[in-house]
Design a protein that fits this description.
Oligomer: heterodimer
Structural class of chain B: alpha+beta
Shape of chain A: elongated
CATH topology of the largest domain in chain B: Cytochrome-c3 Hydrogenase, chain B
Largest sheet of chain B: 4 strands, antiparallel
Number of helices of chain A: 4
Mean pLDDT of chain B: 87
Number of domains of chain B: 2
Low-confidence stretches of chain A: none
Largest sheet of chain A: 5 strands, mixed
Strand order of the largest sheet of chain A: 1-2-5-4-3
CATH class of the largest domain in chain B: Mainly Alpha
Strand order of the largest sheet of chain B: 1-4-5-6
Radius of gyration of chain B: 23 Å
Distance between the termini of chain B: 25 Å
Number of helices of chain B: 17
CATH superfamily of the largest domain in chain B: Cytochrome-c3 Hydrogenase, chain B
CATH architecture of chain A: 2-Layer Sandwich
Number of strands of chain B: 9
Number of strands of chain A: 7
Low-confidence stretches of chain B: none
């Protein structure tokens, strides 16, 4: 592997001071903790200068009562190597506050982020500013809770019942 | 039933011809045989040309990611084969590999288990491609190819049945290796399949590959360029059909795939026909891998010697008290991976399937995330069908080879 993560961090930090807060190595995977306000710039830089053209995954984690910025938005970015076995994968994480969770969208960098961000919004209620079409994707449009939040109780059927009853009322024939 | 609505706000009256034209909204699905499940696509049509296509998903949402937060790592396994149920064994193995990575026990897995998993993984790939090609052909009117494909798929199900007792929902390997040794007739059945399958593949090949009608319906249809495919995050035959040679088995090898001799087929047109060609060739390459696997299937232990993770043998459970206690503890509490997080990707038949597991040191996953290939690949549909004919939507959905169980999870 002829890829140097340190020089990548240096380049990103010189363009966006303080963007990379921490670097974690675990089980052969590299995780970078990115400052939330610079995420769009950092991702754009990774794609343009370092060839991370492929967004493998985008998701979020809820650390209710465990950490203070409650949410983490997790990006898995991928670089196709010049040789087929020289692929690099990085994990980027951005911490997002529990009150009014908001982060910049990366849909203008990878258009594949569209549905992935919609799913995170649907499941966690994290708003992606700049997303072209931020709607619920898996749950009904009028569903209120955010199911993958840790304070959501799976036994609570009231919200589903309301959606279902509304559909019955409006469905007609 | 499909419901047709007329949108008058986009109505347009042509004074010269005296004809009033308007865009028609056609609701395709969620119960439509060509949507391969419960996909709903709202199509805006100008005559027979698609102006805009908006997919709606979520009709099969079961909340697997949430459910897995409340059960032990081993109990999550049966949920994984209910995602891409056409290649459930591949989902199972992908999940098991992720848990093994989280535990840090990849090196302890015996070779016999790894080789058996490779054979089963490639059988799963053939099984899924057979359905993908068969139903794509069926949707476009070629009934006979579908029957040949499904006949062969039954043979794979028979092999899976001898190995794990189930045909569709396999839930097969365990963390640390196989639950039981492979049955005695496994090798014979796989060798028998290797002998018969090339004949069927040749029949499907002769029915479709140079079939004039098939070529007319798929060539130049639902095209997507390499740049767009990467930008949208497509994987699997949908990406390789556009000329990008990305295959997780080569890019980030797992299960010792680096030791197998096989090629990654790539086609360059980016249309439905290219994706079909990729799938056909991938089945031939899978046969090569299975043959190498069955020839080199080593004897020896089938599960790792890790008492903290692997259940004791049944005989010992019934005869020795220590084994019985161990069995109880493992079933009730599960093993406890150290706090940390891993992501592991496998090359599923439909593209890259990756699991992202976070452990907080207890016996249950703190968060399990599944990145299904169909979910991301589905995003390409509006681009593919824009400006094309209504009939091409069917060809596009079939050539993407989506499974709604995995899109909705």
């Amino acid at each position: 592997m002829s890829f140097d993560v340190d020089s990548l961090i240096e380049a990103v930090n010189s363009a966006y001071p303080g963007a990379v807060k921490e670097r974690i190595e675990y089980r052969g995977e590299t995780t970078l903790i990115i400052d939330k306000d610079t995420i769009s710039g950092v991702c754009g830089r990774l794609k343009a200068s370092f060839g991370f053209t492929f967004l493998a995954d985008l998701t979020a984690v809820d650390y209710l009562e465990i950490r203070t910025p409650r949410y983490e938005v997790v990006y898995h970015v991928h670089r196709f190597g010049p040789e087929i076995d020289e692929n690099i994968r990085l994990r980027l994480k951005a911490e997002v506050d529990g009150q009014n969770p908001k982060i910049d969208s990366v849909t203008h960098i990878w258009s594949g982020a569209d549905w992935l961000e919609r799913e995170v919004y649907d499941m966690f209620g994290i708003v992606f500013t700049g997303h072209p079409d931020l709607r619920r994707i898996l749950m009904p449009e009028d569903y209120e809770p955010f199911p993958l939040r840790k304070d959501f109780d799976v036994r609570d059927r009231e919200a589903s019942k309301r959606s279902f009853e509304r559909a019955l009322r409006e469905g007609g024939d | 039933m499909e419901r047709v609505e007329f949108i008058s706000r986009e109505a347009d009256f042509n004074a010269d011809t005296g004809i009033r034209t308007e865009t028609m909204m056609l609701n395709m699905g969620p119960q439509h045989p060509a949507t391969h499940g419960v996909l709903r696509v709202v199509l805006y049509l100008d005559g027979e040309t698609v102006v805009k296509a908006v997919p709606y998903i979520g009709y099969l949402h079961r909340g697997i990611e949430k459910l897995c937060e409340h059960i032990t790592y081993q109990q999550c396994l049966p949920y994984t084969d209910r995602m891409d149920y056409l290649a459930s064994i591949c989902n199972n193995i992908g999940y098991i590999l992720t848990v093994e990575k989280l535990l840090g026990i990849e090196d302890a897995i015996p070779e016999r288990a790894k080789t058996a998993e490779v054979i089963l993984f490639e059988l799963g790939r053939i099984e899924s491609h057979l359905v993908g090609i068969g139903t794509n052909a069926l949707d476009l009117g070629a009934m006979s190819a579908f029957l040949y494909c499904f006949k062969e798929r039954e043979r794979i199900y028979d092999i899976l049945e001898t190995v794990c007792g189930a045909r569709l929902t396999t839930s097969y390997p365990r963390v640390g290796g196989l639950p039981l040794d492979l049955p005695d007739d496994f090798e014979e059945k796989v060798r028998n399949f290797l002998k018969i399958f090339p004949g069927t593949l040749a029949e499907v090949d002769s029915l479709l590959t140079r079939n004039r009608i098939w070529i007319d319906r798929t060539k130049g249809i639902a095209t997507i360029s390499a740049e767009d495919a990467i930008d949208l995050g497509l994987t699997g035959p949908a990406l390789r059909g556009s000329g990008v040679p990305y295959d997780v088995r080569k890019a980030m090898p797992y299960l010792g795939y680096e030791n197998y001799d096989f090629e990654v087929p790539v086609a360059y047109e980016g249309d439905a026909y290219s994706r079909f060609l990729c799938r056909m060739e991938e089945m031939r390459q899978s046969l090569r891998i299975i043959e190498q696997g069955i020839n080199n299937l080593p004897d020896g232990p089938y599960a790792a010697d890790l008492p903290d993770v692997v259940l004791p043998e049944k005989e010992l459970t019934y005869t020795r008290m220590e084994s019985l206690i161990r069995h109880f503890v493992l079933v009730y509490e599960g093993f406890k991976p150290p706090a940390g997080e891993v992501q592991h990707a496998v090359e599923n038949p439909k593209g890259e399937l990756s699991y992202y597991l976070i452990s907080d040191g207890t016996g249950k996953p703190y968060r399990m995330r599944v990145r299904g290939p169909s979910f991301v690949n589905m995003q390409a549909l509006p681009n593919m069908v824009k400006g094309r004919l209504l009939a091409d939507v069917i060809a596009a959905i079939g050539s993407l080879d989506i499974v709604l169980g995995e899109i909705d999870r």
